[in-house]
Write a structure and sequence with these properties.
With 397 residues, the protein is α+β, with helices and mostly antiparallel strands. It contains twelve helices and 15 strands. The strands form four sheets. The chain has a five-stranded antiparallel β-sheet, with helices on both faces. The protein has a four-stranded antiparallel β-sheet with strand order 2-1-15-14. A three-stranded antiparallel β-sheet has the order 4-7-8. Helix 1 runs antiparallel to helix 2 (29-40) and helix 6 (190-210) packs antiparallel against helix 7. It is globular. The chain starts with 7 loop residues before the first helix and ends in a 6-residue tail after the last helix.
Amino acid sequence: MSRPALEVADIIRRAGNRFVERNRAHLAWPHLKVLLAIERCRTAALGGHLDRCSHCSHRAISYNSCRNRHCPKCQTHARDQWLAARSQELLPVEYFHVVFTLPHALSALILQNKRLLYNLLFRASAESLLEIAADPKHLGAEIGFLSVLHTWGQTLEHHPHVHCVIPAGGLSLDRSQWIQPQRRGFFLPIRVLSRVFRGKFTAALKRLFRSRQLQFHGALRNLSSPKLFQQFLRSLFRRDWVVYAQRPFAGPEHVLHYLARYTHRVAISDHRLLSFTEGNVSFRWKDYAHGHKQRKMTLTAHEFLRRFLLHVLPRGFVRIRHFGFLANRNRQPRVSLCRQLLVAEPLRRSAPAAETTSARASWHCPLCGGPMQPVEHFTANQLARELARWESGVDSS
């Protein structure tokens, strides 16, 4: 994919300082750290390395990446490594994709309690899936799945939800057989999942309130009143919570392609940006409510950056998690058992994941197409001196 003409980094470089000056009282250090990392990513400020072509000896300097997980340019290598590991865990069955979404009425409370309530979203959705799947009326099995947190919608508004990717079936409760769903193309009842998810989340919210773990600031201060908080919970419980299930994937390779798109995404990719003129940012977005039509949205740079920073995660927060027989503590023996019961050989490493990783480990010479290999590394200060020598025509070798 070609380099986009406009990047989030360009918007930060041109409008970031003014945005920080106007909002310094509301910005925490993690927000500033993300802005600074993206602004400096793949520039001389982070240092770099000298690459030489193995065929024609052409030389070029490459700049280092910031490796911040919110940076649109720094997810490819981490994604490919992660996919290569996941390819060994896929089973030869259909896979389902289930999405748990929180009501918009919770958005402000979540933004003031990100770590607590994002953790609760993971826990309530996972417990709902595990509980309903273990019920003999539905599947009667121990399932395994991974969940990925996304906090954004197409227009960058706060829209927290988890994507769950689940093999169709699971281990019997005595782990002696693999149990398939009773109907092909159907996994678990969505309406039941929605109600159980809603009940678990609101019950946990009530416990967090009673233990005084929730924070209430600004317009939410009134919710610190037990009576008003109880009214808030009742209003949440009267709504239907959205749980959505897509048609099952055809097989393991389709799952990998899906995961490649979803697991290491950030709020907006550089390729969706259209223009930045007169202080306004325009970008493409997909209107799911009207046939997935492509539309254009224009925001001021201030509003664009504000929305972008809504999705900065707490430090150290894990946004990809595994549950059931895919949980970290017992994943390897459980997957091996599933394969034995399914009479399946371990999958070879996925070609897309493995080949992409090696292909992107180096880049190709613009003159002859040969592989470019790093021969020397520079700090930011060393790189500045090296670039000065290059500009003056002095060969440093």
